[in-house]
Design brief:
By secondary structure, this protein is mostly helical. Helix content is 81%, strand content 0%.
Length: 426
């Protein structure tokens, strides 16, 4: 009998990788707009960093550009969660994508006519970051509305795959596009993807959240209270904040590593980012195929430690091929960590507060610029490898301390019956 139970558990653990795409048409639309939005996002990430380096020849300015791209997460994520829980989620997503597309189009025009100055790039980075903060939070909340609970881990992982798959093609194309079309032409291709994402998003169904019509401030406070009162959520948020603050800043310094440490140009940088994206896709697919990967706190802790270790190794790689290998591993382990965090959060909340809880999670992503800016200053003085080394070693120590503080993170699953997702789509 015990053997039969183990076999049944193993069968439910294995999932058709494309299950959510086959069973839920609305999720297919969300998957499509996620692909196009993130194709533009990853191209923007490479091109903006490279453009910042060309305009100023300063690693600090590269870090500042990354800082202003990420700081809107701290400013708008919590108010965004309230709006996501009060208004049609399709409309919120569509409005945010229109803002991002307009910013990209204006940047193309300024580059084309030679009007662009460094401060204007910083402004564009901030406005685009603000729009993407809404996009990320709303998209995450929509996943729980468009699929059933049995498909949630699979859908979250497939969404992560759609976010990371463009990292294979987008950055790899961005470098050659700069050589072929120049910086204005490369950014124009990025703008085309943003506009296409707007067109696809129009096809999403309307999603009316189930939040009670309390005042804005009360709704705001309810989201914070929900996180504070539950140990599961506090543990997950604490673990989410550390790699964002101390590990992910390495992404903003890839142009510096490529040019100054590995002797690569824009094309070589694109290849490095593409391999990092390939690893992320493989990690996301692994979570999509095995529910246990996305629903286990123990696997979450192991993956985030492995992620920090891989970035540490990348910072010390002496040759490009070894750096690429460690970036690939970092992409895979980082994707498992992010998909697991998102899945565990989705399973732990109901639809009435889903947007606000996920916006608190997004708030942890706002810590990225907090880590990026001082890392840029350290890199200016002591070099990018030492800056990344200091951050990743601090991250590994802090992750172990958080796992020790919250025993729930050392369990194979979160205990207790999870709230059921409430879907109101029309």
């Amino acid at each position: 009998m015990a053997q039969e139970s183990d076999d049944a558990r193993s069968m439910t653990d294995r999932v058709d990788v494309l299950y959510s795409l086959r069973m839920y048409p609305a999720f297919r639309v969300l998957f499509g707009t996620t692909l196009t939005t993130n194709a533009a996002f990853w191209m923007w990430s490479l091109l903006a960093g490279w453009l910042a380096l060309l305009l100023t020849d300063s690693p600090f300015f590269v870090g500042l550009t990354g800082f202003l791209s990420g700081i809107p997460m701290l400013i708008v994520s919590l108010p965004a969660g309230v709006l996501i829980d009060r208004f049609d989620r399709r409309f919120v997503l569509l409005a945010a994508q229109v803002v991002v597309a307009l910013v990209t189009v204006v940047l193309v025009l300024f580059l084309w006519f030679g009007w662009l100055h460094p401060w204007q790039l910083l402004l564009a980075a901030f406005l685009s970051g603000a729009g993407m903060a809404f996009v990320f939070a709303t998209r995450s909340a929509l996943v729980g509305n468009l699929v059933g609970r049995e498909a949630l881990a699979n859908a979250v992982a497939l969404t992560s795959t759609a976010q990371n798959a463009p990292r294979i093609v987008g950055p790899a194309l961005a470098g050659p596009l700069v050589g072929l079309l120049g910086m204005p032409g490369a950014f124009a291709v990025c703008a085309v993807f943003q506009v296409l994402s707007v067109v696809i998003t129009v096809r999403l169904p309307r999603v009316r959240p189930t939040t009670r019509r309390s005042g804005f401030w009360r709704s705001f406070v309810e989201g914070l209270e929900a996180v504070w009162r539950r140990e599961q959520l506090r543990a997950l948020m604490g673990l989410a904040a550390l790699p964002t603050l101390l590990v992910f800043p390495y992404t903003n310094f890839l142009p510096v590593f490529a040019r100054d440490e590995l002797g690569l140009g824009a094309t070589g940088l694109g290849v490095l980012m593409a391999l990092n994206g390939l690893g992320a896709v493989i990690g996301s697919v692994a979570v999509a195929a095995r529910r246990r990967f996305g629903e286990s706190p123990r696997i979450l802790v192991a993956s985030v430690l492995a992620f920090a270790a891989a970035v540490f190794a990348f910072a010390h790689a002496p040759v490009p091929w070894l750096a690429a290998l460690f970036l690939f591993v970092a992409g895979a382990t980082g994707a498992v960590y992010m998909a697991s965090t998102n899945t565990l959060l989705q399973l732990a909340v109901d639809d009435q507060i889903r947007g606000r809880v996920l916006s608190v999670y997004l708030l942890t992503w706002g810590l990225l610029p907090v880590g990026t800016l001082p890392a840029g200053a350290i890199a200016d003085v002591w070099g990018a490898p030492r800056a990344v080394t200091l951050l990743t070693l601090s991250a590994m120590l802090a992750i172990v301390m958080v796992a020790a503080r919250f025993p729930i993170l050392r369990r194979p699953t979160l205990l207790g019956e999870q709230p059921r997702a409430v879907t109101r789509v029309r």
